[in-house]
Amino acid sequence: MMKKFTLSAFTLLAMAAPVFAAGSDIEIKNVSVQFIQSPEYTVNPPIHQARSEKWMEVEVTFEAKPDFTPELAFNYYILFAKHLVVGHVNHVNIPKGRELRSVAYVSPNAIGMLTNGRQFTGADLENVSVTVTSPGVAAPMSMKSFKPSTGEWWASMKQEEGFVVNKSETPFAPLFWDRYVPLKPTTSH
C-alpha cells in the first residue's frame, strides 16, 4: 500500500513539475492602465480629423527567462463600467528579457457602449488582471492585477468578447514597433 501511494505521489509530482517550472520562466511584473488620445497623422491631401476620443491602453511589463519562447498568449480581463470585457493578445518569438511588453486596447466606441454614452470616470475602472499562458497549457504561467485582488476574480462573471483589441487593430499600429514583442500574425481565409 505504501509503495502504491509513493509511486502515485511521485507520478503526480513528475507530471506537475513541468507546469511549475514553466511558471517560473515568465513573470508579469506590472500592469498599467491609461487613457490616451488617438494619434494624429498628416496626410496628403489633407483631411479634417474629428476631435479624437480616448482609448483605454493596458500595458503589461514582463520578464522572460528562457533564451527564446516561441509563443505566449496574454489574456486581458477588464472590469469596466460593470462589464467584464476580455481579450487575448498572442505573441511570438519572445526573446529573453526583463523589460518586455504586451499591450491591449479598448476603443473609444467600445468605451461609449460600455458606459451607455456617458462620460466615464475613474470609478468605472474597477480592475484589470492579465494572465499569460503557453500553447497547450491551460494553467496560467503568471498573473498580475492592476488593483490588489485575490485569485481569478473574473472566473465566475459573465465575460464579453470583442471589446479588447491588440495593437494592430488600432491607429497605434505603426507606432513604437520596438517597444512590444511581436504579435502572432493572423491567418486569413
Would you kindly provide a written description of the structure presented here, covering whatever features stand out?
By secondary structure, this protein is an alpha+beta fold. It has a single domain, classed as Sandwich (Immunoglobulin-like), CATH 2.60.40.10. About 15% of the residues lie in helices and about 45% in strands. Strands 1, 2, 3, 4, 5, 6 and 7 form a seven-stranded mixed beta sheet that branches. The N terminus is likely disordered.
Topology record:
Layout: H1 2-23, E1 26-37, E2 54-80, E3 83-106, H2 108-114, E4 125-133, E5 142-145, E6 159-161, E7 164-166
Parallel strand pairs: 3-6
Antiparallel strand pairs: 1-2, 2-3, 2-4, 3-7, 4-5
List keywords for this structure.
189 residues; alpha+beta; Immunoglobulin-like; seven-stranded mixed beta sheet; 2 helices; 7 strands; 15% helix; globular
What's the end-to-end separation, in Å?
Answer: 56 Å
CATH architecture title: Sandwich
Task: Provide a count of the helices.
Answer: 2
The stretches of 5 or more residues where confidence is low (pLDDT under 50) are 1-23
Mean pLDDT: 85
CATH superfamily: Immunoglobulins
Q: State the order of secondary-structure elements, H for helix, E for strand.
A: HEEEHEEEE
CATH class: Mainly Beta
Would you give the CATH topology? Immunoglobulin-like
Radius of gyration: 20 Å
Number of strands: 7
Percentage of residues in strands: 35-45%
Helix content: 10-25%
Structural class comes to alpha+beta
Oligomer: single chain
How many domains would you count in the coordinates?
1
Largest sheet: 7 strands, mixed
Q: Tell me, what's the shape?
A: globular
